[in-house]
Specification:
This protein is α+β, with helices and mostly antiparallel strands and about 220 residues long. It has a single domain (about 30-200), classed as 3-Layer(aba) Sandwich (NADH Oxidase), CATH 3.40.109.10. It contains ten helices and four strands. It has helices at about 5-10, 15-25, 40-55, 70-80, 85-90, 110-115, 125-135, 140-160, 175-180, 210-215; strands at about 65-70, 95-100, 165-170, 190-195. Helix 2 crosses helix 8.
């Protein structure tokens, strides 16, 4: 019998794995009402965060940091700055995804350290840093925030795989959130907030356009 490892090594995915992944995608929805009586186990939260850690990022710079909020009093303080959305206080945990800002500056040691990992021994890091310098002169913060959304998507899918619900929250006041949480806005931008827990509502129907309206082949 072929094992899961064998399938992955051969570049193939077994039919049960395909079906399980599709089930997770259909299970996931933006949960608006969580059951506050159901906490998220530490092991499950770690599994979800690991999916964020393993996410792809441009140039492998991993421009994200994850701030996990479990403290109920802190989340009550935070809620008004998140447009008073009840997910902030009813979810089992709230993950604030922070996008790197200052560390991504071309003169910072961080990009040099991260980019060096990608090069073979003896390769010229100077040329790579020159290339990065050209890229980093653009809209660096917007790029960093966009990368964080990749990690958020993977985390929400990973949560769905293990039966945990999530809700991405983009409605918040960045300055107020940063002040309440003590976030240095020179170093980080608040990219997205993800509530994590167990649904306290019935899942609504999923509405999506068919592939025929979304995909063009050339």
């Amino acid at each position: 019998m072929q094992t899961q490892t064998t399938f992955l090594a051969a570049g193939k995915i077994s039919q049960p794995m395909r079906e399980e992944f599709a089930r997770a995608l259909n299970f996931r929805f933006a949960c608006k009402r969580f059951d506050p009586a159901k906490p998220v186990a530490d092991a499950d939260l770690t599994y979800i965060l690991e999916a964020g850690r393993l996410s792809p990022s441009s140039l492998g710079l991993e421009p994200w940091r994850f701030l996990v909020l479990r403290d109920e009093a802190l989340r009550r303080r935070l809620r008004p700055s998140c447009w008073n959305q009840n997910q902030i206080t009813t979810a089992g945990a709230v993950v604030v995804i922070l996008a790197l800002k200052a560390l991504l500056a071309p003169e910072s040691d961080y990009p040099r350290k991260m980019l060096a990992r990608l090069l073979p021994p003896g390769a010229d890091l100077g040329e790579t840093m020159k290339l990065y310098g050209g890229i980093a002169q653009g809209h660096r913060v917007a790029w960093s925030v966009a990368q964080c959304h990749i990690a958020a998507a993977n985390m929400m899918t990973a949560a769905a795989v293990i039966g945990v619900d999530t809700c991405p929250i983009g409605g918040f006041e960045p300055e107020a959130v940063a002040e309440i949480l003590g976030i240095d806005r020179e170093k980080y931008a608040v990219a997205l907030i993800v509530a994590v827990g167990y649904r306290g509502q019935t899942q609504p129907p999923k509405h999506r356009l068919p592939l025929s309206e979304l995909v063009t082949y050339r």
